[in-house]
TrEMBL record:
The gene is menD. The lineage of its organism: Bacteria, Bacillati, Bacillota, Bacilli, Bacillales. This is 2-succinyl-5-enolpyruvyl-6-hydroxy-3-cyclohexene-1-carboxylate synthase. Belongs to the TPP enzyme family. MenD subfamily. Its cofactor is Mg(2+); Mn(2+); thiamine diphosphate. Residues 14-125 form the Thiamine pyrophosphate enzyme N-terminal TPP-binding domain. Gene3D superfamilies: 3.40.50.970, TPP-binding domain.
Length: 580
């Protein structure tokens, strides 16, 4: 059997198995050495093929697709530094539990370490950030090797999806010639044996563990349920049911989906604003917390855990230690929704007045957060999106200040809005590309992003020239890194602050919109902003809405809100001295 036939059937069987194992989306960054894989995926004619010339953008675009579809997404690139450009997205996928299958083409072994062009050391290039790495064998079309190709395609899919989702990496060495011959017989292996998985899942904790938890909680009266970012379909409703059964407040992170359920009596959305005050955190006597999902966006929640001794119960699907409070904890392993349902069966009674106090605290804070304002601020930009965004749509939120403003100002709503962010590594890499990946399903996505994050990932916009993607971009332009204005760096009065942290970027964003043929509006009035949002949701393609703000004014506005909330909170705590 000649080289071309071996190459064709080897990649053909690998391709067919990826499809049969559930892959539907493939993101390709063009290159020569990856020709066999790219042509095979295109020729197979069953995949959604996305071509992005920038590997860093492509990696994040793939994470967006995976977030939206909850399926494994394939990434394909050529040899050399192309693979290195995937690194930020793979780190995000690792910490964010996103299923990616990274296929890097490589020079054959004889061309490595001899000065050949585009030949770098790609062995385990992503280190421990991938769940599994394998160097694929050179193409061979013997029956055993074709089954080997299938087995590794299938294994890559299932490893990325179970037990905890994450990225995997297969490295493919290819010799020239690189072009397969799809006129050959049995390219895809239609008669090949297909692997089936009958997976056992340990979805619940044992009855003995439940009994132990009940005994531990009986001596406690003041508890809090916390639900952080997660991607479990039934977890939000299960946590809501648990909170209602136990009559405990639940701190609902904006990425938890709990703020969109009918849980006004138990859901506390304003906990971040309430806990901003160190004095308040010290006054609250919390006996225990039960946490689902990752740590919330809110830093004050972490500070509450660090400053107080309390029992922690952390629920996760596998043996992991997501506990940055560095305090002792009880870890419960199982499907989080199933565990929440089990906990709800326990007969427990807690301090009713504690629960009622948190209702008062939440309502008081919400009144302050929703007070009418005359100027369009960054917090009100969030309120505007929540007011206008269509039901059953998706909001993607950039890191730094946007996600924190969503945490503070996105209150409970009857609308079903799916809110997402790159909170694995919490970086500003690839925000635009991830949002576009979420829009690949055809649904409109709203992106809230700051100017520095926008400029950092602007290459991702190239995809909008080739694909019909529907995205409303709300760009908060405060001419720099707004989040640093809240940090000690800004308070020290250093003459180097603006250069090193403020980093003002004088970019005319209307020209960026013109470059990519976007509809563009710049607004500084509330009514104009709402009208711009309404208009964007009525049209196809991409709209860019620029909201200009001042960093200093934004800090003062936020601090005024927090101070007023602190004043009202302290008054309520004083009224409830026996409870707090």
């Amino acid at each position: 059997m000649n080289h071309v036939e071996s190459l064709t059937k080897y990649v053909g069987h690998f391709t067919d198995q990826l499809y049969k194992s559930g892959v539907r989306d493939i993101v390709i960054s063009p290159g020569s050495r990856s020709t066999p894989l790219s042509l095979a995926f295109a020729e197979y004619n069953q995949f959604n093929i996305w071509v992005d010339i920038d590997e860093r953008s492509a990696g994040f675009f793939a994470t967006g697709i995976a977030k939206q579809t909850k399926k494994a997404v394939v990434l394909v690139c050529s040899s050399g530094t192309a693979s290195a450009n995937y690194y930020p997205a793979i780190i995000e996928a690792s910490y964010g539990r996103i299923p990616l299958i990274v296929l890097t083409a490589d020079r054959p072994h004889e061309l490595r370490d001899v000065g050949a062009p585009q030949a770098i050391d790609q062995m385990k290039i992503y280190g421990d950030y991938v769940k599994w790495f394998h160097e694929m064998a050179l193409p061979d079309a013997t029956p055993n090797m074709l089954q080997y190709a299938r087995n590794h395609a299938d294994r890559s899919v299932h490893t990325s999806l179970f037990q905890v989702k994450g990225p995997v990496h297969l490295n493919f060495p290819f010799r020239e010639p690189l072009i397969p011959d799809f006129s050959l017989d049995d390219v895809w292996g239609e008669e090949a044996l297909i692997t089936h998985h009958f997976k056992f899942e340990n979805t619940q904790v044992s009855s003995q563990v439940l009994a132990d938890i009940q005994q531990q909680l009986k001596k406690n009266k003041r508890g809090i349920i916390i639900c952080g970012p997660h991607d479990y379909h039934d977890l939000a409703s299960a946590v809501l049911d648990l909170a209602e059964k136990w009559q405990l407040p639940v701190f609902a992170d904006p990425l938890s989906a709990l703020r969109h359920l009918n849980g006004e009596q138990v859901v506390v959305e304003s906990y971040d604003s309430i806990l901003k005050s160190k004095k308040i955190r010290e006054l609250l006597r919390v006996d225990f917390i039960v946490r689902f999902g990752a740590m919330p966006v809110s830093k004050p929640v972490l500070q509450l855990l660090q400053q107080n001794d309390m029992e922690q119960f952390i629920i996760d699907e596998d043996v992991t230690f997501r506990n940055p409070s560095i305090k002792s904890a009880h870890y419960l392993y199982g499907n989080p929704a199933d565990v929440a349902n089990q906990l709800a069966t326990l007969s427990l009674s807690f301090d009713r007045n504690w629960f009622l106090m948190w209702q008062k605290l939440n309502e008081s804070a919400k009144k302050v957060l929703t007070q009418e304002q005359r100027i369009l601020t960054e917090g009100l930009a969030v309120r505007g999106i929540q007011t206008v965004i269509p039901d059953e749509s998706t909001l993607f939120v950039g890191n730094s200040m946007p996600i924190r403003d969503v945490d503070a100002f996105w209150l409970a709503t009857d609308k079903t809005i799916s809110i997402h962010a790159n909170r694995g590594a919490n970086g500003i890499d690839g925000i635009i590309s991830t949002a576009l990946g979420m829009a690949s399903s055809g649904k409109r996505v709203t992106l809230l992003i700051g100017d520095i994050s926008f400029l950092h990932s602007m290459n991702g916009l190239l995809l909008t020239k080739n694909y019909q993607l529907h995205l409303t971009i709300v760009l908060i332009n405060n001419q720099g890194g707004g989040i640093f204005s809240f940090l000690p760096q800004a308070k020290e009065g250093s003459p180097h602050y603006e250069m090193l942290f403020g980093t003002p970027q004088s970019v005319a964003f209307e020209k960026v919109a013109a470059l990519y043929d976007f509809d563009f509006r710049s607004v500084d009035e509330w009514s104009d902003y709402l009208n711009a949002l309404e208009a964007s949701y009525q049209q196809q393609g991409v709209s860019l809405i620029e909201v200009k703000t001042d960093r200093s004014e934004n800090v003062t506005w936020h601090q005024t809100k927090w101070q007023e909330i602190e004043k009202h909170t302290l008054a309520i705590l004083e009224e409830n001295r026996d409870v707090r």
